[in-house]
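Hey, can you fold this one?
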Amino acid sequence: MSDFKSNKISDLYQWFKSGLSDTPGEREQKAISNEVFFRFFGLSADQRILQADKRLPESDIVLLKKVQRRLNQGEPIQYITGITDFLSHLIYVQPCVLIPRQESEGLVLWLKENLWELIRQANRKIRILDVGTGSGCIAIALAAAFPDQEIMACDINKEILQVAKHNALINNTYINFFIFDVLSEDINIVLGESLDVVVSNPPYVRESEKPGMATRVLSHEPAKALFVPDDDALLFYRAISLKAMQWLVPGGRTYFEINEALGSQCVKQLEQAGYLEISIKKDIHGRERYLRARKPL
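Sure. Predicted structure:
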């Protein structure tokens, strides 16, 4: 670790950025350094430049050293700061939940485009369920955009839902959270044919894809929220689509984030489950990432 010239903000910033040995590339080093100085010291890039000669106390230097060490050990910046952004919403994250991705923002944006028409046609309050909500980012973005609709979200344990509930609270959104394991439980008695939309970003990364993934993801993010066995890669899509066929009103829709390599298999799975009008949409990188389907009328 190189020594910093002084405790001025400008010198500490350059020292911190240049010491990110586990972060390849100047662009990413700068982005992470900007995030650290903003989250911990409230300094935007412009403020940091304007206050370049301001000196930070020893306690802040100790904090910077700890953060730099954790980053160089491969820990994701989002778990270190405890905060990330999702469609302009602040989302609190802990290692028990997956860090929200930009790809999932695309799923929400697509769904939001469709919901305006659905709400107009229904002429009533619609009901949306987010299955496997994790941090709650998808449900929160929907609840913020459609506060007059009924948004529900579920996940497998209390620890995960505590994070999601906290995020709903700090984002001033109301969501009905409940514990539910989609692979083993049946709550048809509770939901009946009452839902208009079921949305999910379930685990979809095959075990064989691990070698191509970053160490910080493999070592720190919850494996249960990411990986599925190669010999049953669609187990969550199968379980959710079959249950959603019971939960959805006639004409109701399902929305999924999918593995770009498994698009055609996902389509076949939903066809076998009885869905119609199945379509796939690409993400901002041109990869097949989202799927939509309709329950028959």
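The chain is about 45% helix and 20% strand. Let me know if you want another pass with a different chain boundary.
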